[in-house]
Amino acid sequence: MMKLKHLATATFCLMVAFGCSSEKSPIYKDASADIEARVNDLVNRMTLEEKILQLNQYVLGINTVENNFGEMVKDIPVEIGSLIYFNDHAEVRNAMQKKAMEESRLGIPILFGHDVIHGYRTTYPIPLALACSWNPELVRQASEVAAQEAYDCGVNWTFSPMVDVSRDPRWGRVMECFGEDPYTNAVFCEAVVKGYQGDDMSEKNRIAACLKHYVGYGASEAGRDYVPTEISDQTLWDTYLPPFEAGVKAGAATLMSAFHTISGIPASANHYILTEVLKEKWQHDGFVVSDWGAVEQLRYQGMAEDEKEATMLAFNAGIEMDMADRMYQKYLATLLEEGKVDMKLVDESVRRVLRVKFRLGLFEQPYVEEKPESEMYLLPKSLEIAEKAAAESMVLLKNENSVLPLEDVGTIAVIGPVASDSTQHLGNWGARARAEDVVGIVQGMCEEYAGKSKILTAKGCDFEGEDKSGFAEAVRVAKASDVVVVCLGHKGSWSGENQSRSTIEIPKIQEELLSAVEATGKPVVVLVTTGRPVELPRIEKKADAILQTWHSGVRAGKAIAGLLSGRYNPSGKLAMTFPYSTGQIPVYYNRRHRARTGDQGLYKDITSEPMYPFAHGLSYSTFEYGKLTVSADKLKEGETISAEVTVKNASQRDGLETVHWFVKDPYSHITRPVKELKYFEKKLIKAGENVTFRFEINSLRDLGFVNREGKKYLDKGEYRIMVGDQSVSIYVI
Ligand code: NOJ
Questions:
Q1: What integer pLDDT is reported at residue 708 of this predicted model?
Q2: CA-based Rg of the chain, rounded to a whole angstrom?
Q3: Ligand 1 center from residue 291 Cα (angstroms)
Q4: Does 115 contact ligand 1 (Cβ within 6 A)?
Q5: Whether residue 421 has its Cβ less than 6 Å from ligand 1
Q6: Which residue, by CA, sits nearest to atom 3 of ligand 1?
Q7: Are the CB atoms for 54 and 351 separated by under 8 Å?
Q8: Cα separation values, 324 from 294, 297, 356, Å
Q9: What does pLDDT average to over the chain?
Q10: Cα(403) to centroid of ligand 1, in Å?
Q11: 234 exposed, middle or buried (CB, 10 Å; 0-12, 13-18, 19+)?
């Protein structure tokens, strides 16, 4: 630190020489001045030590005991750039901010970040579930609520959305992304960024977004976490970069680097993705934060020999802020002295961090109003969105003989480990989630069917283990009922970071419970509450209906009961393929063609088709698709044509239908997937009515494709527009 101090003094003397200290009201404090002018003015006044601290992020408030708050605050340098804010009291955050504003030389506010992944206190369905709603506007609204609750508690910056396309449900983090498709991730990414940031981040209740984990973390080998990935440049551009590009275009203030290695180069030391693509090609002017300890970890990844080298590699690659491991604080000054890091890059990095702080309006409103919880959390409108989001995210996978909805039923048995365990609906990554806020399945069913049907319940067994002592009671309850709802699944904690699983089965004990109950001969509805696609073939054989409920947040039980009763009509469709078995993984819809036809190359022991494909999902309505038509079958680059399909609701029940528009490029100089989603739209179709869905096909955007440098091409020739089982050829001339 001695060397750092010398440099700091030198910088300060220079500032005095240029007369900065004599100014009365510096530009950076002038709210009416242009942000770039404010950023430059402030950077010019900063010492090296102050600059380096802006590039560091510590943690505030792991302890929840009141006595520890002061100490935690006391330990933190007042010039720190950012804090991960683990407390849930705005007063702690305000106390720390006050120190930064009043005790630091320049009064630079701290940026408080936190993981707000699917709601803050009002927990929404996990992102993978939200994607199955195909309702980006609803997801934007949910993100807006999350931003308001987080902001009211003192959070300015969330580490989400996570848009790592993933095709491996063994990976615990599939719950955090929007499924297996790049376009779907891109659309929901934009919705979430807009929900958090709005049009102006400095408005009250807005927080900065952070796209993560940049990039390709979802390509994780065999679903293991933190392991290396092999991603060709072509696949990087085809599959992993598009959601990030969409988020950058939507204005996302920040990104987070990823833990993994991409074809030999760790993502957190990857100049190509962090600087050449992000900053030079996409012109992103916010900043990149490393993931937790990702700088230091470059040593374990076999790249940096020691901490100092790790710091040099990460910083020079383009990571501006160091999360948690304090490497930048320890080594940046020495690296500067040794000429291994350029002062210009330090200044540029500080500028990026400050720009986000100015855009958030933190200099003008550093504090947050301390309000009672009842004014911040679980507001009626927020809960309404939570229930709607849960209902639209759940996917009806099977409904034989229209066993659902359960109308006019005398007695309903609700059985299984998830039935009364409301905590599990919160899933993983619940920011301020509390079990007591959740309406679980039994509660939801009792409220839904009050005065209509009798609800009996039994746990039957635990999530795992071998204890079958509850089976007899479950069978007794099933026998006493007219229909049995069996609630199976995974605990919330079985998904998320560091939650890889070698199999995606539902534990055997739960399948055995289902068998015991099914043996009663009663109609069986299975609810599957998980954070990932799971193996369902054995369960499917014993179920008349299956509803995939995911980990769906505080109103999960209300949404489930509403779907079972018919108050809601299911409209969710899968954003991630369900395989028959773990051995089929990876199985996803937008794969490239194989070299042989027929059954050549397919599995000899089981089908190579998935159990439930991408976009599968049933409704209580019957939708009939009319003929797919196009406004013209030839177009040139720069031209637009449209495709249309009219969908009839041939049932007595109003229903929401999502039309997915796919494009297939049958022959191309870089081979394309068998089909690619290019657009989707969800609309209400009233009973007996027709609604027309339209896809405006922009030649370059929707038919073009990128090469391995990200350059977009449009080949001449045939393309197919596909909806359901229909396909129409159009030609680029
Ligand atoms: C590590 C996780 O990978 C990342 O997603 C998260 O935002 C940070 N920890 C901070 O909690």
A1: 96
A2: 27
A3: 6
A4: yes
A5: no
A6: 291
A7: no
A8: 9, 12, 19
A9: 95
A10: 42
A11: middle
Q: Which of 88, 291, 325, 437 is catalytic?
A: 291
The pLDDT assigned to 13 comes to: 40
Q: Is the pLDDT of residue 55 over 80?
A: yes
* Residue 590 to residue 271: CA distance in whole angstroms: 29
In terms of Cβ atoms closer than 10 Å to its own Cβ (0-12, 13-18, 19+), residue 576 is: buried
Beta strands in 196-336 (DSSP E): 210-214, 254-257, 261-262, 265-266, 287-289, 322-323
Local structure of 142: helix, strand or coil: helix
Strand order in the sheet with 322-323: 157-158, 111-114, 82-85, 56-60, 322-323
- The CA distances from residue 198 to 42, 345, 426, 460, in Å, are 26, 30, 26, 47
Distance CA 279, CA 507 (A): 46
**Contact at 8 Å (CB) between 397 and 612?**
yes
CA atoms of 308 and 312, how far apart (whole Å): 6
pLDDT more than 70, % of the chain: 95
pTM (two decimals): 0.96
Question: For 28-43, how does the pLDDT look when each residue is reduced to its tens digit (9 = 90+)?
Answer: 999 999 999 999 999 9
Task: State both tokens at 345.
Answer: 């890059």
Q: How many CA within 13 A on the CB side of residue 500?
A: 14
Query: Element (H or E) spanning 441, and its range?
Result: helix 441-448
Is residue 1 packed enough to be buried (19+ CB in 10 Å), middle (13-18) or exposed (0-12)?
exposed
The closest residue, in CA terms, to atom 4 on ligand 1 is 291
Report whether 375 contacts 541 (CB < 8 A).
no
Q: CA-CA distance, 29 to 721, in Å (whole number)?
A: 55
Contact residues for 17 (Cβ-Cβ < 8 A; gap 6+): none
DSSP state of 109: P
Structure tokens at 375: 């004014």
Over residues 333-349, the pLDDT tens digits come to 999 999 999 999 999 99
Give the confidence band of 88 by pLDDT, cuts at 50, 70, 90: confident
Say which residue the tokens 């199955």 belong to.
132
Better pLDDT: 502 or 3: 502
Place of tokens 């242009």: 34
CA atoms lying within 13 Å on the CB side of residue 549: 39
Residue owning tokens 């049907």: 453
* Number of DSSP helices (H) and strands (E) in the chain, helices first: 21, 27
Pick the residue whose CA is nearest to atom 9 on ligand 1.
292
The residue whose CB lies within 8 Å of the most ligand 1 atoms, and thus the one to mutate among 211, 292, 319, is 292
Per-residue pLDDT at 233 exceeds 70: yes
Q: Which two tokens stand for residue 577?
A: 């393929």
d(CA 662, CA 727): 9
Q: Do the beta carbons of residue 104 and residue 113 sit within 8 Å?
A: no
The sheet with strand 395-399 has its strands ordered as 395-399, 545-548, 524-529, 483-489, 411-415, 454-458
**What is residue 62's predicted lDDT score, i.e. its pLDDT?**
59
Q: Tell which atom from ligand 1 comes closest to the C-alpha of 113.
A: 10
Q: Kindly state if the Cβ of 212 falls inside 6 Å of ligand 1.
A: yes
In contact, 703 and 732? CB cutoff 8 Å: yes
- Whether 291 sits among the annotated catalytic residues: the reply is yes
Residue having the nearest C-alpha atom to atom 10 of ligand 1: 292
546 CA → ligand 1 middle, Å: 33
